[in-house]
């Protein structure tokens, strides 16, 4: 849920909350980008990132394993096990890798992503 630009956020309907499994992810195609959406239900938190893992440029992060590392919510690429902070996008086991993150808003059981 990291938004560092000074530009206004444009909210885009991505899916319904039912479309994203608890403790898992799903992918939505928004404004020409594949966006991975994560539901960390036990924590009551939602996150959105690029779906592309920068390690090998594979569109796979929505299928990655979610969890926490020292209270930091994370996702691990299902292919190469590179892990990323869901808050900041910073690589947790490779500081040279990072992903973009996007704000998430839930309203009336619908998931909106800010781009």
Automatic annotation (TrEMBL):
It comes from the Bacteria. It comes from Dyadobacter jejuensis. The keyword Transport does not apply. Keywords: 2Fe-2S, Heme, Iron, Iron-sulfur, Metal-binding, Nitrate assimilation, Oxidoreductase. GO terms for biological process: nitrate assimilation. Residues 11-113 form the Rieske domain. This is Nitrite reductase (NADH) small subunit. One of its GO terms (molecular function) is nitrite reductase [NAD(P)H] activity. InterPro entries: NasD-like (IPR052034), Rieske-like_NirD (IPR012748), Rieske_2Fe-2S (IPR017941), Rieske_2Fe-2S_sf (IPR036922). The keyword Acyltransferase does not apply.
